[in-house]
Specification:
Elements: H1 5-23, H2 27-48, H3 52-60, E1 69-78, E2 81-87, E3 93-94, E4 97-99, H4 106-118, E5 120-132, E6 146-158, E7 166-172, H5 187-198, E8 205-206
Helix pairs in contact: 1-2, 2-3
């Protein structure tokens, strides 16, 4: 499943405008790129009923050359069960994770996220997958291009602890999975992580 064409176009226009505004010095070019950004916001607003000005303001916060954002997800197994956390935002479950921060390596980011959202200490051991969010059936669609990194993490200890973002923590076997927060993690991705657990020789997945 891929994102709708209108979302692809709006993100492409937004990136074009952001890149143009980064390098343009001619006031006429700057005006043109700002107009392109308005068009991108209008496309999004027209299909989502969101406020057009709020979308445009969101786009305007993005500066510099446009690149995909980085999301990291920790894949932690214990006794053949997979660690999931329950999101306060939608009451559904996901692999612990979130945005990588500046000055963090992927392994540092995922270890931090797992600890913050679950209370467990881990060590990242293998990159299992890098997926383009737009190509994997996540809903709802988001206005930014996102790469999702799934890293296998060795469980080292700690105690289950909720956070400002999570309201429950648990380990689940493959045949006992709860309802997933598909904006963050899809059933197909969870199934693939179990395949990696059963077949550790599998190479890293991508795209």
């Amino acid at each position: 499943m891929t994102e709708p064409q209108w979302l692809f176009w709006s993100k492409q226009l937004m990136a074009l405008a952001q890149n143009g505004l980064t390098y343009a010095s001619n006031p006429f070019d700057i005006d043109r790129y700002q107009s392109v950004r308005k068009i991108a916001a209008a496309i999004l607003a027209g299909h989502t009923l969101a406020d057009e000005q709020r979308i445009e303001d969101l786009f305007a916060q993005e500066v510099g050359y446009a690149t995909p954002k980085v999301d990291v997800r920790g894949v932690v197994f214990r006794d053949q069960a997979l660690l999931l956390v329950k999101e306060r935002e939608d009451g559904r479950w996901t692999l612990p994770g979130g945005w990588a921060d500046v000055n963090e390596s992927p392994s540092e980011a995922v270890v931090r996220e797992v600890f913050e959202e679950s209370g467990y200490r881990t060590r990242a051991t293998k990159l299992l997958a890098v997926f383009d969010r737009a190509k994997h059936g996540h809903v709802p669609p988001l206005p930014f291009h996102i790469y999702k990194h799934f890293l296998l993490c060795q469980w080292l200890g700690g105690e289950a602890t909720i956070s400002t973002e999570t309201e429950a923590v648990g380990f689940f076997r493959e045949d006992q999975l709860p309802e997933l927060s598909v904006s963050r993690t899809t059933p197909a991705q969870i199934a693939r992580m179990f395949e990696h657990f059963r077949q550790p020789e599998l190479p890293t997945d991508f795209d």
